[in-house]
Amino acid sequence: MTSRTSLRPLWTGLLLLVALPCLAADGGGAVNWKDQVARISAGADTGARGQAITQRLDALGLAWRGEDFEQKEKQGRNLLVDLGGPDGAPLLLIGAHYDRVAVGHGATDNASGSAAVLELASRLKAHPLSRHRVQIAFWDLEEAGLLGSHAYVTTPGREKPALYVNFDVFGWGDTLWMMSPQADTPLIGALRKGSEARRLGFQPGEHYPPTDHLAFLKQAWPAVSFSLVGGSEIDPILAVFSGKSPENPPKVMQVIHSPRDTVAELDDGRVDDALDVIEQGLRDWDAAAP
């Protein structure tokens, strides 16, 4: 998530110490979301963060490829995975940015979203969709201005997806916050039903912080985005991005792009519920496709 704030780093190496126990073993088995966030955010740079992601993909038996790009005199690398699906079926693309700013460890912004995408990749590999092919993407240089996703959508010959689903800041709270240009769609209906069953807050709407879904919408490609935050944070977050200063700054704006952005700030209490709701919503959306 692109923010207006930045602070100088005060902590160095702390997250690596936290992550070492969970780095010791994977073996392709189950890895919970928070452990995966720790693995990604332990990386000292974008390359190391990407390596943590590709190690998990390898453990899951998922073939991945890197796509190098140059945008605005900056070099980056997107990571792409084909999960497969019915031949000739429309494409569902699911992604998150894996780069971070120089301050903090980028646990919330956006190792949390990358770990959510990895979890969905594992689930969709085990139980594929019936009417869509699925690809997974991890974008570089979002923090430099959505450069990785922009490079992807502007590559000549790129296939337009039926839907792009983005994850950014998926770290705590009781509310699934969804960016959707349309107020009422079959996907929103399925998500609302699932959220009510799980007693999870659900707030869809057009207003949302700038992140990689914008690169797709600017190409007139359908896209939505998800965050998991406290429901009481949403209005103050939007106020900050509109240039206002809320009396009580939301947690998100105190954490991201700061030394506080470590696994210590995460709360996985509702993460599984939120991922369950999104997974089932996508399955219902897939099943309803012509």
What this model shows, in words?
Helices cover 38% and strands 20% of the residues. It contains ten helices and eight strands. The protein has an eight-stranded mixed β-sheet, sandwiched between helices. Mean pLDDT is 91; it is low at 4-27.
Features:
single chain, alpha/beta, eight-stranded mixed beta sheet, 10 helices
Task: Give the low-pLDDT segments.
Answer: 4-27
Number of helices: 10
Helix percent band: 25-40%
Order of helices and strands: HHHEEEHEHEEHEHEHHH
What is the topological layout?
Layout (H helix, E strand, L loop, with lengths): L13 H10 L9 H9 L4 H14 L4 E8 L2 E11 L6 E7 L9 H20 L6 E7 L7 H7 L9 E8 L4 E5 L6 H13 L2 E5 L7 H6 L4 E7 L4 H8 L9 H5 L15 H17 L3
Parallel strand pairs: 3-4, 3-5, 5-8, 6-7
Antiparallel strand pairs: 1-2, 2-4, 6-8
Short description:
With 290 residues, the protein is α/β, with parallel strands linked by helices.
